Amino acid sequence: MSGLQKAKSEETRRRVLEAAVAAVEAGGMEAVNIRNIAKEAGYSVGSVYKHFADQDALLIAVNSVTLGRIREIMGEVVEGTQDPLAQLRALAHAYLAFAQENKNLWTTLFGHHLPDGKPVPEWHIQENIALLAFIAGPLKALNPGLAGEALEDRTRTCFSAVHGLVTISLETRFISLTGARLKGEMDYLVERLAG
């Protein structure tokens, strides 16, 4: 493929993905329809399929964009902060804020499931794991004895607990908290989990 063809191909992929991200932001996962995405991006349906095998592949790519945005925010909130507990608190609050401000992207990230027997691409698994590293570092600093599987388990437990609190708050269940009460309990949860 010549340089010009490669550049055109990358531009097509970028525009299709941008249209899919915009569709999710506006209408959630259900808004991703290959025909509509092709129209919004200004390409044929065949052009979309040239870059994304199916709707699942397109949604995984959208979720990759979402993970990238979360990773960027997490990097920003811990930059210059040396205290590991303050880092964990900042990460939890940044995660909550992202979910509140980007509900459709966040819901799609956790709501999209591949059909049985269709494996999640390894690169996408690694993108998810990269986010957990933001939690593992401060946890290790607070608990120097944690290592290997024990650190991995504690990291996943901490993420799951914070994720659960965020999920319930976004679903506005009768047990959910909001505003300052939610933020205060988020700090309480992080402090207890941090050891």
From TrEMBL:
Keywords tagged on the record: DNA-binding, Transcription, Transcription regulation
Domain annotation HTH tetR-type: ranges: 10-70
Domain of life: Bacteria
Signal peptide: none
DNA-binding region, residue intervals: 33-52
Pfam families: TetR_C_33, TetR_N
Protein's recorded name: TetR/AcrR family transcriptional regulator
Organism: Roseibium sediminicola
